[in-house]
Design goal:
The protein has about 450 residues and is of the alpha/beta class. It is built from 15 helices and twelve strands. It is flat and about 80 Å long. Bound molecules: guanosine-5'-diphosphate and magnesium ion. The site of magnesium ion has 5 residues, from helix 9.
Length: about 450
């Protein structure tokens, strides 16, 4: 792994007008650069008010500057942070001046990458920095904070330590072909591998919830034309986002809005009504609806309570369960069809999307279903991401093969080689295994200045 040696600079806040903008500099030249800029070194970790003069001595702005010497800084290198007035013109001028003074424009994620390479955090913590920046809900924030504090890294270290112990036990016999692992040791190893597998599966099971936190809960509103789907979306979003019309088949494309419901966030998707008699454009809208609905996390099935219960397309009906579906009985401000509306096989709430009645009950029902996925998550709040899940799956498969080989009485070397694969996969989660390409890909998804 190549260690960075140049000094990088970037704007750490979004481009645009704001109260302040922050620039960040990291690398070995930061100390001399600070002196050159301000005429003297800055006392560490203290806020200083200074004039920023660019090369040639033109005054650019009145700034606040903090110097963080290595190694106790975010990147583990010398860092200078400059807060200037939040005018993009000023910030760009300072950045251009820093580049003119020999800094290199940082790449996306490069500050966090340096923090990882300098051992300030493990890979799962570096990912948590991203999760924290992008967290859109209370639950997502909690999980990101846990991971940033190293909860996943610690758990992986425990698994790695246990696996290394088992591996050492097996490898002790490999050099002596005549004395392969005795049966009682095999049994003990088998038990330990079972424990590892159980813990690996448990972590893997948190991926579903982890995805809901990071990607939002994909919530699809389905139902017949005119049931009030678009009206419901508008109520939940809080403004008129979708066209509402008493003419059936108004919504032909689907549209998506991100909303926060209690501690959760949802990608709320309005779709074309499921009209069996539709033709042409409306028909295409319905096909799209079924496509979008195929991989939803949550269904809001809107029913018009003044009409008889609608039938669902069979494929859709098969995907809908009491765990992922809420029946939303709409138009309760109007007289019901006739008699009692039949009992639904799903949690049911009664609303008027026209008047906004019953919305709180609906939000509570959504929150309850969303939280049911948390059952997989332990007290430490770990909820793994897609990359972790892939590594855990590989580790689990290698553990299974190792256990099978042990039971078959295969020579220990072959068992050990499976366990080394499992160890590799575990190691990728916290980044204990070198893999430059993987690191480049991962950090490239970060933003500049992070
Ligand atoms: N009385 C009443 N009318 C509603 C309610 N919800 C929707 N509507 C009306 O039903 C019609 C269809 O609504 P819309 O949201 O476009 O339904 P969609 O086709 O399912 O998207 C419009 O005229 C709405 O004003 C409701 O709760 N009560
Ligand atoms: Mg509509």
């Amino acid at each position: 792994m190549s260690f960075p040696t140049d000094t990088i600079a970037a704007l750490a806040t979004p481009a645009g007008t704001s109260a302040i903008a922050v620039l960040r500099i990291s690398g070995p030249e930061t100390g001399p650069l600070t002196e050159a800029l301000f005429g003297a070194p800055l006392a560490p970790r203290t806020l200083h008010r200074r004039d920023y003069r660019e090369l040639g001595d033109t005054l650019v702005d009145d700034v606040l500057a903090v110097y963080f010497p290595a190694p106790k800084s975010f990147t583990g290198e010398d860092i200078l942070e400059i807060s200037c007035h939040g005018n993009p013109f000023i910030a760009q001028r300072i950045l251009a001046d820093l580049l003119a003074r020999g800094c290199r424009q940082a790449e996306a994620g490069e500050f966090t990458k340096r923090a990882f390479l300098n051992g300030r955090m493990d890979l799962s913590q570096a990912e948590a920095v991203m999760d924290l920046i992008h967290a859109r809900s209370e639950r997502a924030l909690t999980a990101a904070n846990q991971q940033l504090r190293g909860a996943l890294g610690r758990r992986m270290n425990e698994l790695i330590a246990l696996l290394v112990k088992v591996l050492a036990q097996i490898e002790a016999y490999i050099d002596f072909p005549d004395e392969d692992l005795p049966p009682e040791d095999r049994q003990e190893v088998l038990t330990q591998l079972e424990q590892l597998k159980t813990q690996t599966d448990r972590l893997l099971a948190t991926n579903r919830y982890g995805n809901l936190l990071r990607e939002g809960i994909r919530t699809v509103i389905v139902g017949e034309p005119n049931a009030g789907k678009s009206s419901l979306l508008n109520q939940l979003v809080g403004h008129e986002r979708a066209l509402v019309s008493n003419e059936p088949g108004t919504t032909r494309d689907y549209l998506e809005e991100k909303i926060v419901v209690g501690p959760h966030w949802l990608r709320l998707i309005d779709t074309a009504g499921l009209n069996p008699a539709a033709v042409d454009l409306e028909r295409r809208g319905i096909e799209k609806t079924l496509e979008v609905a195929a991989n939803a996390d949550l269904y809001l099935w809107v029913l018009d309570s003044t009409q008889p219960v609608a039938a669902l397309p069979p494929d859709l009906a098969r995907s809908m369960t009491p765990q992922n579906t809420i029946a939303v009985l709409n138009k309760i401000d109007l007289p019901p069809a006739r008699g009692e509306y039949p009992e639904m096989p799903f949690p049911t709430v009664r609303v008027s999307a026209l008047l906004g009645a019953g919305l709180e009950a609906l939000q509570a029902a959504i929150g309850k279903l969303a939280d049911s996925h948390r059952a997989d998550v332990g007290d430490d709040g770990i909820a793994v991401n897609v990359r972790h899940a892939q590594a855990l799956r590989e580790a689990g498969e290698a553990l299974d093969r190792a256990r099978q080989k042990l039971r078959d009485g295969v020579y220990s070397e072959l068992v050990a080689s499976e366990l080394r694969l499992a160890l590799d996969a575990y190691g990728r989660i916290s980044g204990r295994i070198d893999n430059e390409r993987m690191l480049d890909e991962l950090f490239a998804t970060f933003c500049i200045g992070k």
